[in-house]
């Protein structure tokens, strides 16, 4: 810890030790970080679904707008 403290320009090794103890355990690749990436994947799927629905609604809107403009027989 002493070498790390020197490299970081921190006063003492004890400061680095305290940082390590206070660091969330998820920083090691578990818990909250994993939950965050799950949320991102879920949101990306939702965005894709909403874009697809938006495209369908735009096409339907264009279709019905064209129907309104056509003269009736």
From TrEMBL:
Keywords: Coiled coil. InterPro entries: Homeodomain-like_sf. SUPFAM superfamilies: Homeodomain-like. It comes from the Bacteria. Residues 33-60 form a coiled coil. This is Transposase IS3/IS911 family protein.
């Amino acid at each position: 810890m002493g070498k790390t403290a020197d490299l970081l320009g921190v006063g003492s090794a004890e400061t680095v030790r305290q940082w390590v103890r206070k660091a969330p355990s998820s920083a090691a690749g578990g818990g909250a970080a994993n939950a965050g990436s799950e949320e991102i994947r879920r949101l990306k799927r939702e965005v894709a679904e909403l874009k697809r629905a938006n495209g369908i609604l735009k096409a339907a809107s264009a279709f019905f707008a064209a129907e309104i403009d056509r003269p009736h027989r």
